[in-house]
């Protein structure tokens, strides 16, 4: 073996060897490096950590509804013997709790709410004033509930649009409502108003006369507005005709609305996104004075809360009742508001059972208000 001094061209020089030895010594002093995990294709996936920490749950009521409220609304809807739709929306939040919330239900007099808004929009745009006078005659009568009929004599009845507004919204007077509808542009104007406010899934029908006549299986005749003429004509129809007409109406109601669409519009109203501040206040104040449906949703609103609302009631063809509705805004003592819609498209149960459904929704909202 021959050792060349002074290094070798093809080997490690003295300095290089010394450096290597120094590095090895240093490694021995600091200890071995942390070994890298070795994986094997036969080892399978890593085992999960036992009892991992639960993810953070955001229970901010503005972020999502109480799970209890969701459960109760679903149970109420499923447990009701009939076709019902429910929607609840907290006004200052983005969530909605619903049952059949996107299905179209007959509104009946709930549609007066959109007539009222469209009239006030005309006021906001300077097209009319609530103090403007209007004279109604016998030809302006409609049918069903119209207390104004008793006030219209041979010379008619002169009043203001503010008076008609209150009669339509607090007493659900059909003649008052139709007069407002005509003055504010008719059905197309109401549909246009809703479209401009980006409200979807709310239809507006042709007005009380045509809507109710078709639902009964009749063609409108002006004589139906007098006395009991409509009821007599309806009763004289063959039952097969009446059943088919009602079936057709329920299957595709021209005044149909989705509960979610209604609470969306009500929430926008409360926030001032539908009308001017003055008109918004006037409408909500009037809705607080509503005399109709005291045992519907309002019957379940607890002390200290307020409720501004509009009801709707459709025709009966025993054993069926249709269009039994209540929609409005519930406000808690702390000022938090909820838009609510309970709509019964068709049912055979008693009126107290329908009340129980509606009151149950109101109680669920109050019981779960900010309870997390």
Automatic annotation (TrEMBL):
The protein's matches in InterPro entries, at most eight in alphabetical order, are given as:
Beta-lactam/transpept-like, Beta-lactam_cat, Beta-lactam_class-A
Signal peptide start-end: 1-27
Which reaction is the catalytic activity of this chain?
Answer: a beta-lactam + H2O = a substituted beta-amino acid
Output the Gene3D superfamilies linked to this UniProt entry. Answer: DD-peptidase/beta-lactamase superfamily
E.C. number, please? 3.5.2.6
Please name the GO terms of the biological process aspect recorded for this protein, alphabetically.
beta-lactam antibiotic catabolic process; response to antibiotic
Q: Which residues form the Beta-lactamase class A catalytic domain?
A: 85-343
Q: Which UniProt keywords apply?
A: Hydrolase, Signal
Residue ranges for the region (Disordered) are 38-61
Return the Pfam families for the record.
Answer: Beta-lactamase2 (PF13354)
The record's family statement is: Belongs to the class-A beta-lactamase family.
Q: What is this protein's name?
A: beta-lactamase
* Organism for this UniProt entry: Sphingobium phenoxybenzoativorans
């Amino acid at each position: 073996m021959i050792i060349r001094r002074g290094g070798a061209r093809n080997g490690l020089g003295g300095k290089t060897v010394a450096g290597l030895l120094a590095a090895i010594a240093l490694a021995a002093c600091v200890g071995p490096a942390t070994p890298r995990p070795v994986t094997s294709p036969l080892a399978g996936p890593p085992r999960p950590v036992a009892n991992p920490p639960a993810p953070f749950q955001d229970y901010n009521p503005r972020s999502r509804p109480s799970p209890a409220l969701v459960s109760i609304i679903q149970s109420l809807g499923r447990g009701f013997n009939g076709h019902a739709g429910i929607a609840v929306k907290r006004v200052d939040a983005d969530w909605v709790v619903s049952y059949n919330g996107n299905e179209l239900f007959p509104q009946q007099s709930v549609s007066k709410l959109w007539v009222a808004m469209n009239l006030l929009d005309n006021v906001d745009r300077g097209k009319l004033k609530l103090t403007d006078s209007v004279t109604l005659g016998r030809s302006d009568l409609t049918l069903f509930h119209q207390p104004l009929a008793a006030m219209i004599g041979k010379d008619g009845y002169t009043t203001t649009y503010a008076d008609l507004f209150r009669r339509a919204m607090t007493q659900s007077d059909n003649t008052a409502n139709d007069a407002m509808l005509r003055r504010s542009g008719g059905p197309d104007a109401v549909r246009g108003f809703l479209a401009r406010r980006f409200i979807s899934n709310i239809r507006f029908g042709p007005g009380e006369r045509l809507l109710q006549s078709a639902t009964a299986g009749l063609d409108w005749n002006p004589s139906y507005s007098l006395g009991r003429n409509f009821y007599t004509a309806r009763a004289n129809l063959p039952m097969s005709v009446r059943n088919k007409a009602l079936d057709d109406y329920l299957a595709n109601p021209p005044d149909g609305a989705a509960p979610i669409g209604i609470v969306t519009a009500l929430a926008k109203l409360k926030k001032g996104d539908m009308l001017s501040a003055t008109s918004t206040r006037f409408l909500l104040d009037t809705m607080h004075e509503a005399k109709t449906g005291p045992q519907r949703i309002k019957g379940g609103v607890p002390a200290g809360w307020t409720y501004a609302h509009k009801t709707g009631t459709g025709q009966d063809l025993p054993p069926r009742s249709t269009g039994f509705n209540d929609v409005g805004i519930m406000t808690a003592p702390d000022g938090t508001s909820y838009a609510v819609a309970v709509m019964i498209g068709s049912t055979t149960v008693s009126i107290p059972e329908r009340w129980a459904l509606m009151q149950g929704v109101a109680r669920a909202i109050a019981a779960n208000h900010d309870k997390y």
